[in-house]
Design goal:
By secondary structure, this protein is an alpha/beta fold. It has two domains: 125 residues, HUPs (Rossmann fold, 3-Layer(aba) Sandwich), CATH 3.40.50.620; 151 residues, Rossmann fold, CATH 3.40.50.12370. It is built from nine helices and ten strands.
Length: 276
């Protein structure tokens, strides 16, 4: 697996490095620690990050990469060139109150990088991470489920699959409106349950302890409330889904901005298995 680690010397960036230890990453991987700034400053920060990563992951092949210019642009260009399976960065906001607290660089990386992106918040470096896995049955959501299943998690890790049914939306016009609403609601509930069952089956087949939670949407509200109730360490979700037209998908963007834990956004085609 190839991992691009973004480091700017801040406590948030340091936290992102510590967070990698509870991300289920492989024993052997290739990593680049990249920092942007003046030539000397960027080199010093990148070298410092590489030293920390080598200490935490002695089996990884790690090198440093100083960058110049706009941090977000430089990091995205490096990711496009090197094509990592995962880009890891810290969040400059711990309260999840919006884009400003998230940090413009982190938000742009999550929105524009073509690989999966992990944005760290409130890392506890837990030996038994609690992971929320979101699904709506879409290709993007199942990519996130398979990514989780491909990781090397500690035995005490726990996984909760969350699938929402938003019954507030239904097709217009029907000769029997009440019947239409009831049928549509039942269909959405059934689809959410099927999506959750499929995701749990994938995780169980990978030997992971997983359970499912389904409930009324919007999806972002159910995901965030479940993550809070479970005191989750990380939320995994696809970059886009059935709903939303934001570059990240409406649900993914909302979760990224408002979650109080780490969020990993998975893009189809960037699964760990394809980058080993």
């Amino acid at each position: 697996m190839k991992i691009l680690i973004c480091y700017d010397g801040s406590p948030c960036a340091l936290e992102a490095i510590h967070d990698l230890a509870c991300a289920g990453l492989p024993t052997h991987a290739a990593a680049i620690c990249a920092s942007a700034g003046t030539t000397v400053e960027a080199a010093e920060m990148a070298d410092a990050a590489a030293a920390l990563v080598r200490l935490a992951f002695p089996s990884w092949s790690v090198r440093s990469q100083p960058l110049t210019g706009s941090p977000a642009r430089a990091l995205i260009e490096l990711a496009d060139e090197w094509r990592p399976g995962l880009l890891a960065a810290g969040s400059h906001g711990r309260t999840g109150l919006g884009r400003f607290l998230l940090g413009s660089v982190s938000h742009r990386l999550a929105a524009e990088a073509r690989c999966s992106v992990r944005i760290t918040r409130n890392c506890r470096n837990s030996g038994a991470p609690r992971v929320v896995v979101c699904t709506d049955g879409s290709e993007a959501a199942m990519a996130a489920v398979h990514e989780v299943a491909s990781r090397n998690w500690p035995g005490k890790a726990s996984f909760t699959v969350v699938s929402a049914h938003d019954t507030a939306k239904w097709p217009a016009e029907h000769e029997h409106p009440a019947m239409q609403v009831a049928e549509w609601q039942a269909l959405r509930v059934a689809r959410a349950g099927e999506a959750a069952e499929e995701a749990v089956r994938v995780l169980h087949n990978a030997g992971l302890a997983a359970s499912a939670v389904t409930g009324p949407g919007p999806a972002r509200k159910l995901i965030l409330s479940q993550a809070k109730a479970l005191d989750a360490d990380c939320i995994f979700l696809g970059a886009s889904g059935i709903e939303g037209h934001h570059p990240l998908g409406g649900t993914a963007n909302a979760v990224l901005l408002h979650a109080t834990c780490t969020v990993e956004i998975v893009r189809p085609g960037s699964q760990a298995a394809e980058n080993r």
